[in-house]
Each structure stands twice: as C-alpha cells, then as structure tokens.
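Reminder to self: tokens first, then the designed residues, so the page reads top to bottom the way the pipeline ran.
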C-alpha cells in the first residue's frame, strides 16, 4: 500500500532536518519565554517536549507545527527567526513524528456510518431511478467540523428511524406505483426573495416568474394544482396596481395543462386557487407555473424592480415594492380516479420479469427482490435476506396483487439497517488492537460514497466482490473513471460546499434597505458559481492552489451584472476570464464574501475567521463569555465606519489579542460590501483596505492579501488535505492522523498538487483501506 512509503518520505524530509541541539537553542531563544511551565501561554509548554522524540508529545507538537506553518508563531511583535528557519524547524518535528508513525500506522476506528440525507436520496436514485427530496422526509443532520457525513456527529433516534420507515413507504409507492393510494397534497414554496420579474429557466418561453420542479406521480390519474400568491401585511395582493388580467399557466412537460386568472381582489395569504382536474400518467414529470406577461415595456414598480417586502417605519407595516403578482406556493393534490400505473423509469429498473401466471410469481419475486437487495445492501444476498423479503412479499400479495407484494418488500429494503447504515465487519478471530484491511465490497462503498455520495455501481461491486479493488493499478483506474463521471459533481457540492461553508449562505439575508438589489436569485447564482468553480477543479484535474489563484470563474447574467462583467445575459452559466486581480480565486467569490458578512454591513472579524479556519486551518479561539458586540452607530452621534468601530472594539483585552489575528485579514477585504459587490466607499467613508496581518505582512486590498496567504501555501494545502481526508473517511481526525495527511500532501506535491493526486493519496491510505479491531 502506498501509504507505507511514509518512512521513505520521512527520510527524504530529513535532508533538511535541523539538529536537535539547534532546535533546542531555537526554542530557548524564541519560544520558551512564553511557553514554559510557569506561564504556559496557550496552555502549552515546550519544557514538556523531548525534541529528540517529539512523538511522545505529539498532540501538543502537532498544534505547534500548525501555528508555525501558518506563520502565527512566534508572535509578530516578538523576536522571530527567518521564515526559512521556522519551516525547517517544523519539517524536523514532522519528520521525527512521521518516522514513528510509519512503524505503527494508525487507521482509526470509524463509528457506525449512517447515510446522511444527501447520500440517502442519491442511493434511492441509484437503486430505483426515483428523485426524492430527503429534506422533506428526514430530520436535519447534525454537523461536525462543517461536514454532515462524519460518524462522530450522526445521531440515531426513534424519531429518525420512524422517519425512515415512513420515507420507505412513500418511496416504494412512488417507485412501484399505486393506483389505490389515498390522495395526498405536496406543496412547493417559492421564497418571497426570489425575483419573479423575468423568465425562469425551465418554464415555457415567453412567461415570467413562478417556479419549475420535477414531481413523481404515483399513478395514471387526475391531479389538481393549487396555487397561492404573496400578499402584503395589509392583505393586498402584490401586483394589484398592475396585475389586472394577469394569468398563471400550469405546464406539464412544457405543455399547458391549465390556465388560472389571477384575481387582484384576493385578500388572504392562505387563499388557494385550484385548477380543474388534470389527467397525468405515472412517473416523473416536469411541472411549471409561470405568468403570461400582459404588456410589453418596463415594469412600473413603486420604487425599483425588487420583489421583496420592506418595512414601512412610518406605518409599522410591511408593504410590497413590486407591482407584479408573485407566486407563493404550488401544490399538487392526488391521485383521484386512478386508472392504473403506466410504465415508468423506476418500474423498468425494478421489474426484471413479469409473471404470466400464479406459478411464476414466486420465482419472479425472488429474482426482483434479490437484485434490489444486492444493490441496496451493497453485498451479495444471503438466503436469510431472501427469505425475509419473500415473507413480506407474500403478505403484500395476499392483500392485493403482485405489484403490492413487491411494493411491500421494497419498503422493507428501504427501511432495512443494511441500506441505511454502512456496516463493516471485522475478520473472524482477529486479535484486539490489530490493523486489518476492509473487504473489497466495503472498500467499494467507501470509494463510492467518498467520490459520488451514493452507492457503488455494478462495476465497483464486481471488482470489490473479486477483491481486485485493493490492487493499486485497478484502484487508480477506478478513481479516474469515477472522477470523470458526472456523479463526481457530488464531491464539488458536498465536500467543496461544506468545506467552504456554502451551506451557511441560505441563512444570510442582507437588509433590503441597505442592499436593495440582493435577492434569492443572486444568492443561488453565488453558490452555483463556487460549486462550478470547484467542480471544474475536479474535471480538469487542476492544481489545488488554483483555488486561490485562478483567473477564471463561472457566471450567469445575474451574477455578471453584480460583478460588473459585460456582455453576459441569461440564466446559462459560462466560463469567463477574470482580469481584475482583486476578484481572482475564492477570495473574490461573492458567496464567500456574503456568508462572512452581517445583514447590514461587512464583518472583518467573520472574514478573517473564515480565512484562518477554512483556508489555513488555524481557527482563532472562541470569544470569552460576556464580550460586548460591536457597537452600532447611535442616532445623533458621529457616524463611524465599520473599520473605526472595529478598531475601537479591540482597544483592550480580552478583545485585542484575538482580533489582532483576524481583523487585518478582514480589513484587506473591505472593498467588497456585504454582498460581495466592489465598492470604494462605506457609506459616507472612503474604504481603507490597508492592514497588517498577524505575521507582520502589510497588505492593501484583496490581491495583496491573496499573495500574503500564498506565502503560507503549505498551511493551505495541508488544511485542504486534512479536510478532504476527514470527509473521505467519515470521522473527525486527530493528531495521530497528521502523518497520513503529510504523506498525501508530499505525494501530491510530486504530481504538481493536482486534485486527483490528493484523491489517490487518500484512497490508497491506511485510514481509507484499513481499520483497527
């Protein structure tokens, strides 16, 4: 296994090793004054570290290495040796620890892994070709270190398991179809912050606003569409002044199914308008609801084209700014008067056979359920599995028909622990505290959920069952095949999105009074830009540092206007070259700049903390209790800029010591407002983006900040590697894992830090391929 080259790499690192006596002299001169047994600054004393064997204090030494690599120690105001000397010192500590780790590899003991909501939905789609929204079926996930796939944070409760049973029943009906089910109503909500003044991609051409979605219909039947519209708090329809005669078109797969006249006299937020029953066949269909524009020319909004509500301070009311009607909810009710179940993609996936008579039913059911169970459980089916499933089939068959029997057994499969959990079994009679390889099938699942966030496909299961995945050449071929597959987009969305904290963007709603041009459309475009940027890194196998240095990005018309990029229109994203050095890389992405701001202003602290934590892996300590918040400008007093208020806030302890680490980073990004738009003024004040960073580097603006961060590129790459490994093995890492992180990092450096090199290093590592009993 490649990772056992740890000893070779550690030996190579020794070529630049600092002798122990020189290390001791450096510590005595620059470090021991604060980090001694008496003062113990930061809770650490070098007096407890045997520099000839730092592995004996590895937990503390790894923290010191992290600070040294990021340039945080010694403090900027204290005497410090050159950066080259500090790097050599850190490398010497690492090499010593890595030599010891090579003699005793640490695979860790991952806790029982459960499919999170994303993995569950993807696995259902892989198994049944049915798209579901797991967020409506299962409780929210707990997270750890920003990720929702780590076993350490995954809870198991009665409520969760009841939700899985209910979800299994619903999904089995959607997949098999059910002409006897009772009518249900599913509602899709459109946020009030979502702009509805233009065409929405996926709705018929020539329409505006509304929504478009994919809905799975359980039977050939009649369905009723229900809609409601946004109102003001006064009970007035948005669009009353211009909405007379407006119509809302309901389309199924792009063809008009119903046309609703919008009544401008509607006066209740919950008032529902229903269509006549519409006949629709079973299976997935694209459903849209959009307005037919009644006039050409500019929209006569009361203030400007903005679809959000705004508080009227004089009246204490909330009024709508727009004069166009807005769709609030689209609901689909049914089935009514079902006539059967048409052939659907999911039925074609499920029914490998169709019995012609009663004698053929049991063999056919055995074949269907055996195939489904093998895919769902990600292993060969046992006789006990088949017997249990056939009992459920018989119970369902007795109540109705063959389809009912399959549907009942499928519900068991979807609620079965072997589907919901990823069990890994130790070899028989293995001694305690022994490292062992996971099986080929378990490795196939680890690989698939790492790179695709879904179950392994037939090729992975075949190679896993043949125990060929452990062969380095076969494993590399499969990794490259998987990274080239469109399912690898899940790695960009799930790992990239969670590492960068993009999930927090949904909780940010900039104040409409301060940022009237911000809306849900822009927020979605922001997130999509960063996901596509990260996905391009994977598809083109780009060097990881390019996350910070890329002179390209992906924008649609909405985001290009926000950035001031000309000649981009429409909803299609396209790659553009960035010519502004301040907009290059992640630090220029509006998604990052918005999620690190407050509703009414920027936050140098949040931006600095994000860079330290997410990019460099050296999060500042949490604030002590009872620290006062940043003062807002008081009415009648002299107005202060965000920078002036922040500098006033950190004039004394306990604020100063932490803020001097974070604030300099945030100040350098002050030319970006709270929505990531470029500005040269903060209200009445010219923006001052000059600052001094925690390592003493003086910068002015985003471009110089990026250059300063790249001076610590090793810290950035190491933190990226650590997060990718943590996501890949599904557990929180500790100091014992750092030798593996460095091993992956060193091998990737040989390959020019290409993205695939980090992936290959992780899947070939001890933690990924092994466990400890």
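Designed residues (773 positions):
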């Amino acid at each position: 296994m490649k990772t056992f080259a740890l000893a070779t790499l550690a030996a190579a690192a020794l070529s630049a090793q600092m002798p122990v006596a020189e290390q001791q002299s450096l510590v005595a001169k620059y470090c021991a004054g604060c980090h001694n047994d008496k003062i113990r600054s930061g809770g650490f004393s070098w007096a407890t570290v045997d520099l000839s064997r730092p592995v004996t204090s590895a937990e503390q030494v790894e923290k010191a290495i992290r600070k040294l690599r990021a340039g945080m120690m010694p403090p900027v105001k204290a005497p410090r040796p050159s950066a080259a000397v500090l790097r050599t010192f850190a490398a010497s500590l690492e090499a010593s620890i890595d030599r010891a780790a090579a003699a005793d590899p640490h695979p860790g003991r991952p806790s029982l892994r459960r499919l999170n909501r994303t993995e569950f939905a993807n696995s259902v789609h892989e198994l049944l070709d049915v798209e579901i929204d797991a967020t409506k079926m299962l409780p929210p996930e707990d997270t750890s270190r920003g990720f929702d796939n780590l076993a350490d944070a995954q809870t198991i409760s009665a409520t969760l398991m009841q939700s899985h049973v209910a979800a299994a029943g619903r999904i089995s009906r959607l997949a098999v179809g059910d002409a006897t089910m009772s009518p249900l109503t599913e509602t899709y909500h459109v946020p009030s912050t979502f702009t509805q003044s233009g065409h929405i991609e996926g709705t018929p051409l020539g329409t505006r606003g509304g929504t478009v979605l994919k809905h799975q219909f359980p039977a050939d039947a009649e369905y009723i569409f229900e809609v409601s519209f946004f109102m003001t708090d006064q009970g007035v329809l948005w669009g009353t002044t211009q909405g007379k005669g407006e119509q809302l078109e309901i389309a199924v797969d792009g063809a008009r199914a119903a046309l609703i006249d919008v009544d401008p006299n509607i006066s209740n937020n919950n008032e529902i308008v229903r269509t006549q029953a519409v006949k629709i066949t079973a299976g997935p269909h694209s459903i849209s609801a959009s307005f037919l524009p009644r006039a050409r020319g500019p929209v006569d909004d009361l203030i400007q084209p903005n679809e959000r509500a705004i508080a009227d301070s004089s009246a204490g009311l909330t009024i709508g700014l727009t004069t166009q009607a807005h769709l609030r909810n689209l609901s689909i009710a049914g089935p009514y008067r079902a006539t059967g179940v048409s052939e659907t993609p999911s039925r074609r996936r499920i029914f490998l056979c169709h019995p012609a008579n009663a004698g053929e039913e049991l063999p056919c059911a055995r074949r269907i359920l055996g195939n489904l169970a093998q895919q769902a459980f990600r292993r060969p089916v046992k006789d006990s599995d088949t017997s249990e499933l056939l009992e459920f089939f018989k119970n369902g068959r007795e109540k109705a028909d063959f389809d009912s029997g399959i549907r009942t057994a499928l519900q068991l499969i979807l609620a079965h622990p072997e589907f919901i959990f990823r069990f890994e079994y130790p070899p028989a009679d293995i001694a305690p505290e022994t490292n062992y390889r996971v099986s080929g099938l378990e490795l196939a699942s680890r690989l698939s959920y790492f790179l695709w966030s879904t179950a392994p496909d037939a090729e992975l299961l075949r190679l896993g069952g043949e125990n060929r995945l452990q062969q380095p050449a076969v494993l590399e071929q499969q990794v490259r095949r998987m990274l080239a597959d469109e399912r690898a987009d899940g790695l960009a969305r799930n790992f990239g999105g969670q590492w960068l904290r993009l999930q927090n963007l949904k909780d940010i709603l900039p104040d409409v009074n301060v940022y009237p041009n911000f809306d849900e459309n822009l927020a979605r475009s922001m997130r999509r830009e960063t996901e596509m940027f990260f996905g391009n890194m994977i598809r083109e196998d780009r060097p990881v540092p390019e996350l910070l240095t890329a002179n390209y990005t992906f924008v649609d018309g909405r985001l290009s206007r926000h950035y001031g990029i000309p000649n981009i229109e429409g909803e299609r994203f396209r790659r553009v070259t960035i010519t502004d050095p301040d907009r290059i890389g992640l630090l220029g992405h509006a998604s990052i700049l918005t999620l690190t701001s407050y509703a009414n202003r920027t936050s140098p602290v949040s931006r600095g903390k994000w860079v330290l934590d997410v990019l460099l892996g050296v999060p500042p300590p949490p604030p002590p209790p009872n620290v006062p918040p940043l003062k807002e400008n008081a009415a009648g007093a002299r107005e202060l800029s965000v920078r002036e208020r922040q500098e006033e806030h950190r004039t004394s302890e306990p604020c100063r010591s932490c803020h001097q680490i974070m604030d300099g980073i945030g100040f350098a990004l002050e030319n970006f407002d709270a929505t990531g738009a470029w500005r040269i003024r903060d209200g009445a004040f010219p923006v001052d983006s000059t600052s001094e960073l925690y390592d003493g580097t003086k910068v002015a603006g985003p471009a110089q900040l990026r250059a300063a961060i790249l001076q610590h590129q090793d810290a950035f790459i190491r933190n990226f590697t650590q997060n990718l490994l943590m996501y890949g093995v599904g557990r929180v890492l500790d100091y014992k894992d750092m030798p593996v992180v460095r091993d992956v990092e060193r091998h990737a450096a040989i390959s020019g830090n290409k993205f695939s090199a980090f992936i290959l290093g992780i899947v070939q590592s001890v933690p990924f391929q092994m466990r400890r009993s």
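The radius of gyration is 29 Å.
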